[in-house]
């Protein structure tokens, strides 16, 4: 899969919009889930996902293969989210790409359905650095090493943040009433 992703990215670098659409199909659900957990707003997460794919289109030639394509994509998504959260205007939309069906997929529907759950609320209350790690590892499903690469921190720090996040979630959820 990683070789296929790198090959797709090489095609994107050469201007193949079909390759970008295939990369989007492969990663949009996971990227959207991560972004939704990061920003907490479906519309903003969708906009950031589009900003991310535009950034991929523009910078695909700069991919050096030092990390997995998925790590590279999540790092771009994270950067785009922080640009948006800091109030910087995103780049103008890119219209030349044939986009796949924008209807939400199963992952997006599950994440949206959990949006009002006690767990989602507790995750939303975590500090940003813990919420980032939880979103990358549990929502996006990245391995610890890839999450560390996206965040630019050691794997041990990812493990520590996950440990503290789990403990905070357990404390928060233990104090909530269970519906009868």
From TrEMBL:
- Any GO BP annotation: DNA-templated transcription initiation
- The answer to whether keyword 4Fe-4S applies is no
Q: Which InterPro entries match?
A: RNA_pol_sigma-70-like (IPR039425), RNA_pol_sigma-70_dom (IPR014284), RNA_pol_sigma70_ECF_CS (IPR000838), RNA_pol_sigma70_r2 (IPR007627), RNA_pol_sigma70_r4_t2 (IPR013249), RNA_pol_sigma_r2 (IPR013325), RNA_pol_sigma_r3/r4-like (IPR013324), WH-like_DNA-bd_sf (IPR036388)
Domain RNA polymerase sigma factor 70 region 4 type: where? 123-169
Regions that span the bilayer = 60-77
The record's Gene Ontology cellular component field reads: DNA-directed RNA polymerase complex
Q: Which UniProt keywords apply?
A: DNA-binding, DNA-directed RNA polymerase, Membrane, Sigma factor, Transcription, Transcription regulation, Transmembrane, Transmembrane helix
For molecular function, the Gene Ontology terms on record are:
DNA binding; sigma factor activity
Q: Where is the RNA polymerase sigma-70 region domain?
A: 23-89
> CDD domains attached here?
Sigma70_r4
Q: Which domain of life is it from?
A: Bacteria
The similarity comment for this entry is: Belongs to the sigma-70 factor family. ECF subfamily.
User: What name does UniProt use for this protein?
Assistant: RNA polymerase sigma factor
Task: State the organism of origin.
Answer: Phytohabitans flavus
């Amino acid at each position: 899969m990683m070789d296929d992703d790198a090959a797709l990215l090489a095609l994107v670098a050469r201007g193949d919009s079909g390759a970008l659409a295939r990369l989007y199909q492969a990663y949009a659900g996971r990227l959207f889930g991560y972004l939704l957990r990061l920003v907490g707003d479906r519309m903003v997460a969708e906009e950031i996902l589009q900003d991310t794919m535009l950034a991929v289109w523009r910078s695909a030639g700069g991919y050096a293969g030092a990390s997995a394509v998925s790590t590279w994509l999540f790092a771009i998504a994270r950067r785009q989210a922080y640009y948006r959260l800091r109030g910087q205007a995103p780049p103008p939309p890119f219209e030349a790409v044939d986009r796949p069906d924008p209807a939400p997929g199963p992952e997006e529907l599950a994440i949206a359905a959990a949006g009002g759950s006690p767990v989602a609320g507790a995750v939303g209350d975590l500090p940003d650095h813990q919420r980032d790690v939880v979103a990358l590892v549990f929502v996006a499903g990245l391995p610890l090493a890839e999450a560390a690469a996206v965040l630019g921190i050691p794997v041990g720090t990812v493990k520590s943040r996950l440990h503290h996040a789990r403990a905070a979630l357990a404390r928060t959820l233990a104090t909530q009433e269970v519906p009868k």
